[in-house]
Amino acid sequence: MNFLCISLFAILMVSCKYSETKKDGEIDPQLKKQIHVLNKRIIEGLVQDKPELVLANCSDNLLRKKNDIKELMQFLKGNLKENQYKTLNEFYQKNASNKNIGVVHSGKASGHDYQLRYESLNKEMYVVVGYFGDKTDQKCFAFIYGKRGNIWKLNNIQAGILRIMNKDAIDWYQIAISDYQKGYYMDAVCHIGISTQLLNPINQQWKYQKEKEIEAFEQKITKKAYSTYHFPVTVGYVQTKPVIFRVHSQVVPEGYFPLILYTTTIDLNDIAALSKECDEIHKNIGKLFKGIDVDNTSILYSPVKTIPVGTTTTQQHGFIRKTRQ
Fold it and tell me: Based on the domain organization, do 176 and 307 belong to the same domain?
């Protein structure tokens, strides 16, 4: 009986001893250097659109999905620059998976804390989370490596958008809170929309600690905005009486701005008349939607003849107007 207890205790001690997770500066420098060399080759392949550089470093399991890799690279072609790449976090795990699922945590040092789940196929795993800087959006990647024998190979690549205008989901959430507190409800709706868009940069594998909090706030602000502004909204101070039916954020080369969609009675081929009508709407847009002309440097406008239904498309034009900042 004593022998059995000692044996069980020994087994527990061994399993605890060899199960480990290390992050960033905790990782052995030699191991980190080895992975960085491998990661650099993968990044070069992605940036230079050279599938052979990526595939040469893939595990057998990932090579069976090489068409997916090529499809991803085709989608990214021309959109990445090597000198813009930065590592966000990196993790080393040994015997740390549960039913072939590994989980790493960024820590709880800030409100931007996240966890990342991945398929753990080897005894030793290494995860590099990095992104490419860009003026408009920052593309995020999780490079997942596994060690077989003495060789590290790429097991998977996950990709998505981490930040928009250098702000992640948490940053946009904080901006939306500030909008809400000032009574700028349409701005809050626009900004919380960007936040929820960024909640899962790498599919559903990435989870921010504040995800549920953000989703609850989105419901709160949406309810408040649409009880304050009863859409569709007729713009009574404009002679042609355009009707605004939606406001949301839209990307243009200059950045992200509110886009105001409205129906018009003006012929859509009469650009001059449409532009004049847009000017009239814009003059008092801040009175119609409180604060929308305060923190935004520009506002986008798009007139249509009828409100789109389902997948129906209509002829559409776009105007951009500067605010009085």
Answer: no
Is the pLDDT at 44 greater than 90? The verdict is: yes
- CA separation for the pair 219, 240 (Å, rounded): 34
Q: Are 73 and 52 in contact (CB under 8 A)?
A: no
Closest C-alpha among 130, 136, 162, 127 to residue 79: 136
- 285, 254: one domain: yes
The enclosing H or E element of 227 equals helix 211-228
The number of angstroms, rounded, from the C-alpha of 2 to the middle of its chain's C-alpha atoms is 56
Question: Does the pLDDT of residue 191 top 90, yes or no?
Answer: yes
* Residue 127 host element (H or E): strand 124-132
List the structure tokens of 5. Answer: 């207890």
At which residue do the structure tokens 């699922």 appear?
101
Name the pTM for this structure: 0.87
Reply yes or no on whether the pLDDT at 151 is more than 60.
yes
Whether residue 127 contacts residue 114, with contact meaning beta carbons closer than 8 Å, is answered with no
DSSP codes joined into one string, 30-46: HHHHHHHHHHHHHHHHH
Dist. CA 110–CA 89, nearest whole Å? 14
Residue 52, classed as helix, strand or coil, is: helix
How many CA atoms, within 13 angstroms, populate the side-chain half-sphere of residue 318?
A: 10
What is the model's pLDDT at position 32? 96
Residues 56 and 159 in one domain: yes
CATH of the domain at 26: 3.10.450
- pLDDT (tens digit per residue) in 92-129: 999 988 888 999 999 876 789 999 999 999 999 999 99
CA distance 251 to 136: 8
pLDDT averaged over every residue in the chain: 90
- 11 pLDDT band, cuts 50/70/90, is very low
